[in-house]
Amino acid sequence: MNLITKHLYTLYWMSNKESFFVNRIKSIGYAFKGAYHLITKEASVKVQFVIGIMMTIAGFYFGLSTSEWIIQIFAIALIMAFEGMNTAIEEIADFIHPEFHKKVGLIKDIAAGAVFIFAIAAVIIGLIIYLPKIF
Predict the structure, then answer these.
(1) Are residues 61 and 19 part of one domain?
(2) Cβ(129)–Cβ(121) below 8 Å
(3) Which residue among 87, 88, 123, 135 is least packed, with the fewest CB closer than 10 Å?
(4) Cβ-Cβ contacts under 8 Å for 83 (sequence gap 6 or more)
(5) What's the rounded Cα separation, in Å, for the pair 70 and 61?
């Protein structure tokens, strides 16, 4: 590689590296904006958020083990993530087809069903963790 090619390569790499970093910062900002919207505007996510806080307080009260904390945090995060994806699916469906349509209703029901399935699993996880500590 001659000196000019080497210099141009370095300039190209540095400009793309900065651009990549700036884009990652912007992406994080968009993610925070979306998470903030979910927690402050979406009723189902608000409920799950409050339940997550209550379970976290219960975790401190009952002195969860490290593995129990990991499982509980994972369950809380997953249920909120599922709720977020469900909300996104509903928003997309409403945007594409604002009037009632049988297929759109089915799509929304399936997304809500996925949340429900994991919600049941999260309750079972909570029972497995907390029932032995309560009784």
Answers:
(1) no
(2) no
(3) 135
(4) 38, 42, 44, 45, 48, 115
(5) 16
Judge if 36 and 52 occupy the same domain: no
Q: How many domains are contained in the chain?
A: 2
- Provide DSSP, 100-116: --HHHHHHHHHHHHHHH
Give the structural domain span for 12. 1-41
Q: How far apart are CA 135 and CA 120, in angstroms?
A: 22
Extract the tokens encoding 119: 């919600």
Please report, in tens digits, the pLDDT of each residue of the chain (135 residues total): 667 776 666 655 555 556 778 888 989 999 999 999 999 999 999 999 999 999 999 999 999 999 999 999 999 999 999 999 999 999 999 999 999 999 999 999 999 999 999 999 999 999 999 999 999
Q: Which two tokens stand for residue 39?
A: 């927690």
Domain match, 1 and 52 both: no
